[in-house]
Amino acid sequence: MKIVFVNVEDHMFLNQRLNLALAAQEAGFEVVVASNKSELHTAISAYGFKYVDTGNKREGKNIFSQLFSIYRLYKIFRYEKPDVVHNISIKPVIYGSIAARLSRVPKIVNLVNGLGYVFIQHKSFKRMAIKVAVIGLYRFALASKRIKVIFQNPDDRDYFISKKITCINNSYLILGSGVDTSFFSPSDKLSVNRKPIVLFFGRMLWDKGIGYLIEAKKILEAENIDFTLTLVGEPDESNPSHINLDQLKKWEIDGLITFLGYCPDMVEIIRASDLVVLPTYYREGVPLSLIEAASVGKPIVTTDMPGCREIVVDGVNGFLVPAKDSIALAGKIRSILLDKELRVSFGKKSRERAINIFAKEIVAKRTIEVYLDD
How does DSSP classify residue 254? Predict the structure, then answer.
């Protein structure tokens, strides 16, 4: 059996789908990875996967380049003759499904890992028009009995069913992308007396609620609650909501944040933190950052949004706050920073949830069952 994973970028595959691809390989699949070629393609090939360059760009908007993307995928599928195609994220799901249907791939599996910035409530005519167009494209692309759709949270699944994009019979709910709980594990080092660290890691987007996090930091500073707010990640310039480097540097000069940029060794950074925060109002799937934080055994403060509430049970392993509410956010950060016993209790429950719900073995097993389901 052969499977083709269609991704937008190599680093996303390595960070989020490598465990699944290795599990598919172990289950007997010949694995082909189709992605926009970068310097990381050799790292993907090193795992014994065949690598194919799609030439697709995340930010491409020209209609002719989009049609070429579909044609390019069609040619790849015709040449590779896979038994299963697994498309991941918005453009691969739409373009990959159309191409796989045209090339008569027997099974097409699509992962909807969040709805993205297009589906954030917005009053602008342009954003609403794009949303209508995307829904139409989804309906067209997914209109086949050969297609199965995996959702990472029930809100997204129910939304797609309510909009008649897909139906309940070909919809599957698998929470998250899976985490290596052995690697992302709590530290056995004794904590030292130092200033508490509140950590945000992910793309530097306004939609991730970073502006509200900065306001919460100011509120707590005014109360003389001293802590370091550490931001890790890069601006995503292809996203209209990206925060530019000048703004990040200004916050750092003002003493509001410590900005580390991209860091490859996230597990040690998470271990060194006391609390992980994600005040997003972005339509997440299930945020990998929070899954990794839970696996390391950290308390979490996040928003009561789809995907986030699958990780955090309010008052059990962290707190859920309303989106775009810096006062509520500051209040919950305060509660955790000032109560060491609560931090320890929340951290233990986070670790339990990661092992029991989000472990890579659980996610991979359920996904491979979808591949094999007739």
Answer: T
Residue reference for tokens 């209790």: 345
- The whole-angstrom separation of Cα 214 and Cα 186 is 27
pLDDT tens string, the chain, 374 residues long: the values are: 999 999 988 888 998 899 999 999 999 999 999 998 888 889 999 999 999 998 766 555 667 777 888 999 999 999 999 999 999 988 899 999 999 999 999 999 999 987 766 666 666 666 677 778 888 888 988 988 889 999 999 999 999 999 999 999 999 999 998 999 999 999 877 566 789 999 999 999 999 999 999 999 999 999 999 999 999 998 888 788 899 999 999 999 999 999 999 998 899 999 999 999 999 998 788 999 999 999 999 999 999 999 999 999 999 999 999 999 999 999 999 999 999 999 999 999 999 999 999 999 999 999 999 999 87
Alpha carbon separation from 144 to 101, 109, 138 (Å, rounded): 8, 11, 11
Pair 252, 214: CB distance under 8 Å = no
Chain centroid, CA 364 distance in Å: 16
How is domain 197-358 classified at the CATH fold level? Rossmann fold (3.40.50)
Same fold across 2-178+359-372 and 197-358: yes
Strand segments, DSSP code E, in 196-265 are: 197-201, 228-232, 258-261
Specify the fold of 2-178+359-372: Rossmann fold (3.40.50)
Domains in the chain: boundaries: 2-178+359-372, 197-358
